[in-house]
Amino acid sequence: MAKYWKASLLCTACFWGVLALAVPLRGNLSFGFFVVCWLSYYASGGVLAFRAASAFQREWLRLFPDQGTRYDDVRWGNVKDNFYPAPCSARAGFRQMGREMLASPDKTEETAQIVQAALCSWQLILFHFAVCGVTALSLLLLPGQFLNNV
């Protein structure tokens, strides 16, 4: 999980660095440039979360090669006796699958890191969403020389 958070913090530093350098270099921060930076930063959070989830899937299929359909059923919320909406049942299913992966005799020391990263990947997206929101609000509330064409 630490490598995804480090990558996320690096993306955050780059995002704020590009915005901070745009004002002195260009004299102002155009709305179009800000939107492109904002969407790129938010997408980087999604990419990091997707990488954590795909590592979880690869590790699951390595430990349990005959249960690929179970992974797809849990991912899309198609679990038997499912009374929860799909996102809630998918998170519960992934937690159960993580416990099974950690109890597997074939696990490696990297398995625990992969499980932890995948189960906390939603926090990366939430962090990127919060940073995007705070940055957008702070730039919109600043005087007009920083953000024009609004």
Descriptive notes:
With 150 residues, this protein is mainly alpha-helical. It has one domain. The chain is 77% helix and 3% strand. The chain has helices at 2-26, 31-63, 68-75, 86-103, 109-119, 121-141; strands at residues 29-30, 147-148. A two-stranded parallel ribbon has the order 1-2. The chain is elongated. The chain starts with a helix and ends with a strand. The mean pLDDT is 80.
- Number of structural units classed as domains: 1
Strand percentage lies at under 5%
> What is the CA-atom radius of gyration, in angstroms?
20 Å
First-last Cα distance: 38 Å
User: What shape does the CA trace take?
Assistant: elongated
The biggest sheet amounts to: 2 strands, parallel
Look at the structure and give the mean pLDDT.
80
Secondary structure: helix percent = over 70%
Q: Could you give the order of strands across the largest sheet?
A: 1-2
Keywords: Membrane, Transmembrane, Transmembrane helix
Transmembrane segments: 32-53, 124-142
